[in-house]
Amino acid sequence: MEGWIERFKGLSQLAEPIRRRLEAQSRIVTIPEGTVIFGPGKAPEDLILLLDGTVRVQEVSESGREIVLYRVNAGESCVLTTACLLAYEDYSAEGIAETDVIAVAIPRAVFDELVATSADFRRFVFTAYSRRITDLFLIIQEVAFGRVDVRLAQKLLELARGGDVVKATHAQLATELGTAREVVSRQLQEFARRGWVSSARGQVTIEDPGALKAFSSGS
Questions:
Q1: How confident is the model over 47-62, as pLDDT tens digits?
Q2: Best CATH choice for the domain 147-217 from the list 3.40.50.300, 2.60.40.2310, 1.10.10.10, 2.70.150.10
C-alpha cells in the first residue's frame, strides 16, 4: 500500500531520506481474524502500525481470568510493543486480531536506529506511547474504583457502535470489564428489568439507548 506513511500523523513530517528508509525496509503484513499476534514470554520483532482492522490486547491471569487492556485501531501503534522494544523485554500480555488486519511491520533494527538518530521519529513514538499510557491509567482507575453497572452501560454503547445489537456473551463482556461473568449476568438482568436491554444467546439488544446513555453518563 503506497503512501502508508501519510496515514500516521508525525511520520509524514520525517525527512525524505528517513521516509525512503522506512518504506524500503518495512513490510506490509496481513493477519487473519483470530490470530494471536503476540503473547507472554515472546520478544517483539517489529513495531506494528495498523492500516486496517483492530487488535485486542488482553491480560490473562494464572487462574485463566482475562481483562481487555485496550484495542489498537487503524492509524495507531501498540503501546505494549513499543514498551517492550524500548526496554528489550518480552511481552506480558497477548494481542489478538479481532478482525482481519493489514499493518506495517517496522523491523526492530530500523526502529532502534531511528529512535536513536531521528528526533521526529522519536517524537512520533513517544507521543503515541504517552497517549496510550494515559488511557491505561484510566482503565486501571475504572477497574479499581468504577461502578460495574455504569461501566457495563458504557461498554454496551461502545460495542454497539451506534447500533442496537452487541454481539458478545456474558463471559466476553466480563472480560471487557475485568469482572466475573456472574456479575455481568446479574447486572444485565437488572437492565432488562428496567427495559433498557434484552438478552439472547451470544448477544445483547439495546432497547432504550437514551436511558442507557443517561445512566452511563450519570445524568
A1: 999 999 999 998 876 6
A2: 1.10.10.10
